[in-house]
Structures are given as structure tokens and as C-alpha cells.
Amino acid sequence: MRPKRSRDPVQAAHQVYLEIIGEAPRQVPSEPDPSPAAVAKRKGAAQGGEKRATALTPERRQEIAVNAAKVRWKKD
User: Fold this and answer.
1) pLDDT digits over 5-17, tens only?
2) Which of 16, 56, 61, 74 is most solvent-facing, going by the fewest CB within 10 Å?
């Protein structure tokens, strides 16, 4: 995970600058949640995507992609 920074770009840039020149401690990313529930959730999500990808036919995947492109590029 990435370290949390300010949403203000000027403050975030200033924090990075201070870290680079050594005037502020580096913000190290936090470790992912080690709880068994969190691990199972991540593992299940990865397995679900793989199973869905193998279950879809190439025609159905193309259908989904075409529909997604239409929605993405639809003009108001």
C-alpha cells in the first residue's frame, strides 16, 4: 500500500521534497491487514476473477468489451 499523503498537491509535493532532502522522516507504507478474514477476502477475489475469466467464452468476452466501450465513449 502507498503511504497516505495530503490530497492537496502543493502539500503533498512539499512533503515529498522534505523526505528527499532528509528533513522529514520517510512515510513507509503500512503492511496489509494480516487478519485471516482480510487474507481470505483477497484470495477469494483473485480466485473469482480467474474462474470468471475461464468460464467466459471468447464471444461473451468480446460482447462485454464492446458494451463497455460503447458506455465509455457515449456522448451526452
Assistant:
1) 778 889 888 888 8
2) 74
